[in-house]
Design goal:
The complex is a heterodimer. By secondary structure, chain A is of the alpha/beta class. Chain A has 24 helices and 20 strands. Chain A has 3 domains: 8-246, P-loop containing nucleotide triphosphate hydrolases (Rossmann fold); 250-278 and 546-578, no CATH class; 332-355 and 380-544, P-loop containing nucleotide triphosphate hydrolases (Rossmann fold), CATH 3.40.50. Chain A has a 6-stranded mixed β-sheet, sandwiched between helices. In chain A, strands 16-17-18-13-19-20 form a 6-stranded mixed β-sheet. The longest helix of chain A has 16 residues, at 179-194. By secondary structure, chain B is mainly alpha-helical. Chain B has one domain (7-272). Helices cover 66% and strands 3% of the residues of chain B. In chain B, helix 2 packs antiparallel against helix 6, helix 2 runs parallel beside helix 10 (254-272) and helix 5 (79-92) packs antiparallel against helix 6. The longest helix of chain B has 32 residues, at 204-235. The chains are: A alpha/beta, B mainly alpha. Chains A and B meet through helix 2, helix 3, helix 4 and helix 5 of A and helix 4, helix 8 and helix 9 of B.
């Protein structure tokens, strides 16, 4: 051992999951990696590439089948090293509510320090310090299940900080968070890193990986790429081969680079990219692009008026989820709902098929009044398909074929039913023969989402309501789900979806409603909403990258239309502004 | 109330912070006093004892400052079951029959003592449920853990892993609201698929079959959660040292001593009256 061993040294590690169906395939194969103190490493890769497995080797939650992992020179396979290793390497997990053990915030923060057997005044001191560091001091007496997801993740981080670790591993910590929560966690990571903490960050969002010093790409249990963000994101085709995509900013930079040679493709912030584009000349400055064609007038299919809803009404734990919400959605449109966690999006969605009934105000969907208690949920689900955030909760049957047939079964004869199931599976790109006899629990996250979609589509609803349809999916699955949603809309279906992914919404939606603390604070086209700037920020939201770049360009005099809210849209608009018309 | 809102019906396992005298008691004292009273209520033999118990619990609820409606709502779910037991008690009371004989239809003989026994049964359970709910509503989990841990300390002499036992108790308590939430999520998701949850009636087998699709996912999600939670606990070094310490340091004051003695007196009175 050298006098100064690296913080983490992974040497030729192979790992087999024991007792799994796919035990023949190792989760990690001959993987080697060194992480030095003070680094900020982003770990990316498609679902099943071994990111989480690797992360769990870093603090001896998993032990290598072959090879070795050393933390500060200590071998993880020796049990007596575990307390020291787990103190040195802390971990914040994906699911906020599963990592909180105690019933109040401060007790939970103390958990790790209590496990270490520290004296109680020392624990108190560390807990106070950690809670202040994550800005949760005010909330210290509250029970965790009343916090927002972002706050829970900060509590989990505080618990780790109270151990005073050398390195913190964030395992998809931001996957379930709203834009503000995500921004907050990212800023905390950067601040900790500046103060000398080593950060290992696992993420599905390529944009976030740009913030790291070093990006490690995993593919099928091996390190496929390892370098600076600029190096790793230099070749989109190579990335696609690993099931990944370019960060939106890099994709945008590539498109703009063709128009403005010399634009840095490796730009790391929207400002850096926008400022690299030359100022417009007089002609470009005065140019006006043809206005986007007006949206068709649509017949109203969902009408919510003055809706109010209080959870746990008449108990001391009552809280108001919706406060005077009014919203209409047109037939055949895609309507987006955005807002911070706890702004009431899910509560509103659950009114559309009668799971929740208006306590005050009215809801009409497809000509049926949800205020009428004779209109049953069973009746509504024929018209409105609701897809929840965790698809596994809605599974009723064991086999995929039965699962998808469940809804239409009482309505159809056998051959027609089979045809319907086949049709629904076709819509989401699942092969009927290959999938119909598989168990629902054996599927990957992306496949589950598709089965959940198909099982709702099998009812041929007029309206499809989706709660966070892409949360937790890797880039490829996410793109696929989005493509299907676009197809459904072209097929005439009405879509209502809530999402924290502003980029996805920019691509899909015709109109967007912003919910803030249970009120509908703004409704408009996606372009109108995303041009709100600071206001958007105050609602806990964030404009898509393309809009951030476009805003900056507008300030510099480029007449970029507000409708340019996607990568492709902005590149097209810029190319319209710079190309000289043929004389 | 919505058909699908489960959490509001669960009063056990939730903690409502407050500053009432009950909240401020030393957790050890609160637990000792509470357990003594609950034991006394369980074994009380006379209506007068139960009456006193009811009075004590009502006083405690008033002291706690918690809303009555919330506590009383906790009585609703088990009420049909209790009434059913009470009816059984009326007909099949095993105690000694005491006159006056009220009704006599052939083999069915109902004495006044049967009615008293049935009344006591209902009262006993109601008081117990109120008492347990109250105790858990004013105690945060860590206080319960701290109290239980302190009370179990003598068992460590017998090399019984009391810390693990208390940790188990803590996590069980954390799980109760979670299970209610998870069940709510599953029922809502399944109702959105056309599963008819609002249907009432049907025989026992039919009803059991209706909840079957709920049980499997609930089981799977609970196992998954347990696994993830165990991982998070491991990652934070649970079990890595032999002696866990606690952040909480409480002070036992003379009021706690007085409260425990008073409750011991009350418990004796409930038992012996």
């Amino acid at each position: 051992m050298t006098s100064n061993p690296p913080l983490i040294e992974i040497d030729n590690v192979t790992f087999f999951h024991s007792g799994r169906e796919a035990a023949a395939e190792p989760a990690l194969r001959g993987l080697s990696l060194r992480i030095e103190a003070g680094e900020f490493v982003a770990l990316i890769g498609a679902n099943g590439s071994g990111k989480t497995t690797l992360a769990r080797h870093l603090n001896a939650l998993l032990l290598p089948t072959q090879g070795s992992v050393r933390v500060l020179g200590m071998d993880t396979r020796e049990r007596r090293n575990w307390p020291a290793i787990r103190t040195a390497v802390g971990m914040v997990f994906q699911s906020p509510e599963d990592q909180l053990v105690s019933t109040t915030v401060e007790d939970d923060t103390a958990f790790a320090a209590e496990n270490a057997g520290l004296p109680s005044d020392e624990i108190r001191r560390r807990v106070d310090e950690a809670l202040r560091a994550v800005e949760m001091w005010e909330e210290r007496k509250r029970p965790p299940h009343q916090l927002s997801a972002g706050q829970m993740q900060r509590v989990a981080l505080a618990g780790v900080l109270a151990m005073r670790p050398r390195c913190i591993v964030f395992d998809e910590t931001t996957a379930m968070l709203d834009p503000a929560g995500r921004r907050n966690v990212m800023e905390m990571m950067q601040r900790l890193n500046r103060e000398g903490m080593t950060i290992v960050y696992i993420t599905h969002y390529m944009q976030e990986a740009l913030l790291a010093d070093r990006v490690v790409v995993l593919s099928r249990g091996q390190v496929a790429l390892d370098g600076s963000p600029r190096e790793v994101f230099s070749d989109p085709r190579r990335l696609a081969g690993f099931g990944l995509e370019l960060p939106p900013l890099t994709a945008l930079a590539e498109g703009l680079e063709e128009l403005f040679p010399g634009v840095p493709v490796g730009a790391l912030t929207p400002e850096e990219l926008a400022d690299a584009i030359p100022d417009p000349n007089e002609m470009q400055r005065s140019r006006r692009l043809p206005a986007a064609e007006a949206r068709p007038q649509r017949e109203e299919i969902i009408a919510v008026r003055n809706l109010k809803y209080i959870y746990m009404k008449d108990t001391p734990l009552a809280h108001t989820a919706l406060e005077d919400v009014t919203l209409t959605a047109g037939r055949g449109a895609v309507h987006g709902l955005i807002g911070a966690t706890g702004s009431g999006k899910s509560t509103l969605l659950q009114h559309f098929n009668g799971l929740l009934r208006p306590q005050h105000g009215s809801v009409r969907v497809a000509g049926l009044s949800l205020n009428d208690s004779n209109v049953t949920v069973k009746q509504m689900v024929q018209v409105v398909g609701l897809v929840f955030q965790n698809p596994e909760a809605q599974f009723v049957e064991q086999y995929i074929g039965d699962e998808i047939a469940y809804g239409p079964r009482p309505l159809l004869e056998k051959p027609a039913l089979r045809e319907r199931v086949q049709w629904a599976m076709g819509l989401v790109g699942l092969d009927f023969e290959q999938y119909k006899d598989r168990l629902t629990y054996s599927l990957s996250g992306g496949e589950r989402r598709k089965v959940a979609l198909a099982s709702v589509l099998a009812m041929q609803p007029q309206i499809l309501v989706l709660d966070e349809p892409t949360a937790g999916l890797d880039p490829l699955s996410r793109r696929e789900v989005l493509r299907h949603l676009q197809d459904f809309q072209r097929g005439g279906m009405t879509l209502v979806l809530s999402s924290h992914q502003m980029g996805d919404l920019a691509r899909l939606t015709e109109r967007v409603t912003v919910l803030h603390e249970g009120r509908d604070v703004r409704t408009g086209t996606a372009a109108e909403i995303f041009s709100e700037g600071q206001q958007l920020h105050d609602w806990g939201l964030e404009a898509p990258i393309a809009v951030q770049v476009a805003d900056r360009l507008r300030k510099r005099g480029w007449p970029v239309p507000r409708e340019a809210i996607t990568t492709e849209g902005l590149v097209a608009a810029m190319s319209g502004l710079v190309t000289v018309e043929a004389a | 109330m919505s058909d699908y809102e489960f959490l509001s019906r669960v009063t056990i396992g939730q903690y409502i912070p407050g500053i009432s005298p009950l909240h401020r008691m030393d957790p050890r004292a609160r637990l000792t006093a509470g357990l003594m009273l609950l034991a006394a209520i369980t074994f009380a033999t006379h209506p007068a004892g139960l009456g006193l118990a009811l009075l004590v619990v009502m006083t405690a609820i008033t002291l706690s400052g918690l809303p009555w409606r919330f506590l009383l709502r906790g009585l609703l779910p088990p009420l049909p079951f209790l009434l059913f037991l009470a009816v059984l008690q009326v007909f099949f009371n095993t105690g000694e029959n005491q006159p006056p004989l009220l009704i006599w239809w052939g083999v069915v003989q109902i004495y006044a003592s049967d009615l008293v026994a049935a009344g006591m049964l209902v009262l006993r359970f109601c008081v117990l449920i109120l008492g347990i709910s109250l105790l858990s509503l004013v105690s945060s989990t860590s206080e319960i853990i701290y109290g239980v841990d302190a009370l179990l300390k003598p068992l460590r002499w017998l090399r019984i892993p009391t810390q693990d036992l208390t940790m188990m108790a803590q996590i069980t308590l954390r799980f109760i609201p979670f299970m209610a939430l998870a069940a709510e999520r599953i029922v809502k998701a399944q109702a959105s698929r056309g599963v008819d949850w609002s249907a009432k009636g049907g025989n026992l087998i039919k009803r059991a079959r209706r909840i079957l699709p709920l049980l499997v996912p609930l089981f799977v999600s609970s196992l998954g959660k347990a696994e993830r939670m165990a991982l998070a606990m491991d990652a934070r070094g649970y079990g890595s040292t032999r002696r866990r310490t606690l952040m909480m340091s409480t002070r036992w004051t003379w009021t706690d001593t007085a409260a425990v003695i008073a409750c011991a007196g009350l418990a004796a009175a409930i038992l012996l009256l």
